[in-house]
């Protein structure tokens, strides 16, 4: 059951949503009039059905985890339309781009600094570079920073808002000493646990046939096609380990499955981005990923010391610095490998590959140490960095923005993106970030409603 406070943000999830699935009948939790299309892929392969059935056999129910109950499994509702991903650009910007004369989009422009009047501590614009030419653009009302959880803190620090010691070490004038870049969280997992499929259940086809399928997909716009879906990644499950919070409605692990080519895996697993150069739809094995939803380990990021402006920020994830995080993931992996006992797995001949991977050879497959080794030596995230410009009350020493997303101590400057999450959400981050966008748009309108300028 959702807590009472969730209802403060639920209307903003629903505002953007245009849900086309059967779950849309649940109007308490779903919106149907928003610009963002939400639907399942029409193409579902047999392995997805097998995985759902296997979870059901273990007692995990089929649920709408975007509704009242999160613990359970289903094929995910995605921000897609007709088997094609819908980005925020497609949903929100494209429809108004030529209609709204007060909107200008500058592409390939890199903001390097918020312009702040030092003594009034008021933001009034940004500095950016495009095609090697520097520009300044000024704001009459306020500046909204939405560069994501890695770049928003970087831009704040370059502008003089951040930890005093970091800024002073780089000779950046300190306008406001705040814990920018701290509280970094992500959804951590491993690349190194694989299930093998049989000849009958593998969807792998030779590379030249994949090219033919891609051509067919584009020619016919056939949306009931493997390429209109993401293979087993369209299924997900939310489960609890014995380390989860007392509140039994809350999961501490999300389980993802993504299709792999096992040849690329044996002995030394590659990472997600290296492997998935071919579409997700063609695979002969499945990577199982228990994802830690409630990490207690927190990391931080800071400016690149040699190239603060154009260099990437230095990221210290500090994963597994709290042992409970590792205990939770190992417990989850152990329980997931028990799926091998289900009728669904046995009938299809699906097995966990028990070859020990190269970095973990000293340990016995299935032991705590072996599984812990998979998480530390083949670490992956699912690209959900959050928390680096934390929202919090004024007495929270780590808070960077207040509940209206205004930067503490600076006038006319807000941050609105994944960086403001005080705690990473228990699920994928895209929809929550869109919710943050919907919420701040109301806050901004409310702030300036009496202004005629
Ligand atoms: C490969 C991948 C797959 C993902 N899959 C999913 C998924 O399936 N489901 C899900 O829920 N989430 C997914 N996510 C996560 C989701 O995309 C993010 O949580 C979400 O986009 C974060 O939104 P944001 O606004 O905080 O940051 P972003 O989406 O990163 O937006 C920040 C924007 O700021 C721009 N920017 C950055 N720095 C500057 C600068 N200096 N000057 C000008 N512009 C700048 C960037 O170009 C970008 O457009 C995925 C992420 C990745 C990387």
Task: Summarize the structure in words.
This protein is of the alpha+beta class and 453 residues long. It is 24% helix and 19% strand. The protein has two domains: 41-83 and 186-381, Glucose Oxidase, domain 3; 106-179 and 389-447, FAD/NAD(P)-binding domain. The chain has a six-stranded antiparallel beta sheet. It has a three-stranded antiparallel beta sheet with strand order 6-7-8. α1 packs across α11 (430-447) and α8 packs across α10 (368-377). The chain is globular and about 70 Å long. The structure holds flavin-adenine dinucleotide. Residues 109-111, 146-149, 151, 155, 383-384, 417-418, 428-431, 433 line the site of flavin-adenine dinucleotide (FAD). Keywords: FAD, Flavoprotein.
Topology record:
Elements: H1 10-16, E1 17-19, E2 36-38, H2 46-57, E3 72-75, E4 80-81, E5 84-85, H3 88-93, E6 110-117, E7 122-130, E8 133-138, E9 143-145, H4 148-158, E10 161-162, H5 164-169, E11 176-177, E12 188-190, E13 194-196, H6 207-220, E14 235-239, E15 253-260, H7 272-275, E16 285-292, E17 300-302, E18 314-316, H8 323-337, H9 343-348, E19 351-352, H10 368-377, E20 379-381, E21 413-415, H11 430-447
Parallel strand pairs: 1-2, 9-21, 10-11
Antiparallel strand pairs: 3-14, 4-5, 6-7, 7-8, 12-20, 13-16, 13-19, 14-15, 15-16, 17-18
The structure holds flavin-adenine dinucleotide.
